[in-house]
Amino acid sequence: LSRQYGALLILDETHTISTAPGGYQRRHSLTPDLFVLGKCVAGGVPAAVLGLTPEVADRFARYDGTRPPGHSGMGTTLSGNPLQLAALKATLAHVMTPEAYDRMERGADRLARGLGAVVLRHALDWHIARVGARVEFICAPGPLRNGTQAAAAHAPATEAALHLGLLNRGCLIAPFHNMMLVSPVTRRRQIDRLVAAFDEILTELTR
Fold first, then answer.
1. Residues in contact with 77: Cβ distance below 8 Å, sequence separation at least 6, in sequence order
2. Handedness of CA 89, 90, 94, 98 (dihedral sign)
C-alpha cells in the first residue's frame, strides 16, 4: 500500500525485534523506508538504532544542505558514551543470536499453546496473540483488527484478578496488555508454572 500510494513505510521495531533475527520486517519480507529500534538493542541502556534507505538518506542530506548554519542536537548524560556502545556490542554479539532466537521461538510456542489449551478447557471466548517471542492473552474473541476492537477487548476487572492471582503464585507478567516475553534463558519449567497458575486462577474465576 505504501508503494501504491507513494507513502513512506516507517517501522518501529522496539517491540517487534523479538519476532526473529532481523525483526518483524525480515520475517514478513517488508522493506521499510525508515526503521527505528529502541533501548532493547542495548539491553535496556538508553540507546537507539535508526535505519534509512539510501534514497531517504540522500533526500534528507539534500534537505539538510539547504538549511542555514546553526546549532542543534541532543545531549544527555548517556549520549554517545562507552557504556552505550559496550551494551550495544554485547547485545548484538551475545543476545541477538540465531541460537537465542531459536530458544525464544520454542519457548513462546510452548507458552502460547499452553495458554490456548487452558482457555479452550475453560470454554472461554478468548484468544492468544503471539508475535515472535511475545505472547498475550486477550479476554475477547480474535484476532483483533483495529484499535477500536483492541480497546473494546479490555476487561479491567478480569485482567486485574488474573494479574493478582499470578502474582500471588509467584508469576509476574507485564502490567500492560497481559503480555509475556520469553527470553533466551526462560526455562520450560517456568513456562509450565505460569500456565498451571493461569489454569488455577481460571478454575476459581469460572466456578
1. none
2. negative
Q: What is the pLDDT of residues 24-35, one digit of tens each?
A: 999 999 999 999
Tell me what the mean pLDDT of segment 99-103 comes to. Answer: 96
142 in the Ramachandran plot: left (φ > 0), alpha (ψ -120 to 50) or beta? Answer: beta
Helix (H) or strand (E) holding 37: strand 34-37
Q: Which residues contact 122 (CB under 8 A, 6 or more apart)?
A: 202, 203, 206
Strand partners, 49: 37
* In a shared domain, residues 76 and 103: no
pLDDT band at 79 (very low <50, low <70, confident <90, very high): confident
Q: Which domain holds residue 197?
A: 98-205
Handedness of CA 78, 81, 86, 88 (dihedral sign): positive
pTM equals: 0.87
* 48-76 pLDDT tens trace: 889 999 999 999 899 888 888 776 666 67
Q: Can you list the pairs that 92-99 forms with residues at least 24 positions away whose Cβ atoms lie under 8 Å? A: 92/41, 95/43, 95/184, 96/17, 96/21, 96/41, 98/21, 99/184
At 99 the pLDDT is: 96
Closest CA to 15 of 46, 37, 33: 37
What CATH number does the domain containing 36 carry?
3.40.640.10
Let me know whether 106 and 25 are in one domain.
no
